[in-house]
Amino acid sequence: MNVLLISDRESEYLWDYYQPGRLKGVDLILSCGDLDSHYLSFLVTMAGTPLLYVHGNHDKGYLRTPPEGCECIEDKLVTVKGLRVLGLGGSIQYNGGPFQYTEAQMARRIQRLRFQLWRAGGVDIVIAHNPARGYGDGEDRAHKGFACMVDLIDRYHPRYFVHGHVHASYVANLVRTRERGETKIINAYERYLLEIPDGAAGENGAEKRRRIPRF
Known about the structure:
Elements: E1 2-7, E2 28-31, H1 37-47, E3 51-53, E4 71-72, E5 77-80, E6 83-88, E7 91-92, E8 100-101, H2 103-111, H3 114-120, E9 125-128, H4 147-156, E10 160-163, E11 177-180, E12 183-187, E13 190-195, H5 205-211
Parallel strand pairs: 1-2, 2-3, 3-4, 6-9, 7-8, 9-10, 10-12
Antiparallel strand pairs: 1-13, 5-6, 11-12
């Protein structure tokens, strides 16, 4: 399965200079936020495949003009093409704008998802806007990672944790992938093609159900 991960910057290759066939073979698109809603609508139309998204801290315009043909999965766990995908958008709070959360607020959002995670037997991919603390975040207040995201990874062991918010222009050499335990952490800035081996989606669901306490 080929999953296109996008965030923070519209790809000229996939929009301004798009040519038919460039999205051929993409099975699913996941957006981690801070992208033009028309861009998401364009991609879902051209790809003809599901597009799931969460909000970035600059996505206030989505409240007026949400991306057409796309599905917002904020605070939800959905199963698409055998993949269990959880959405937790927004950034760390730094100036009181929309889609910003304190550490305590984000921790409560995660806490409220316990039943969904237990019922699904775990999660394969978490898409967030903000990174987890110490895994691709920044040192400044606006790009500090959430510690509760690290707890989420340690408790539920998603196969992938995908985020945006940290741009390539912010650091000299952007590290796109990291690992914590069983989880691969990916910065989806602009675009990143994730190839998931056939049959890998949800393959450990029964095992994870046994490991995850209901309360």
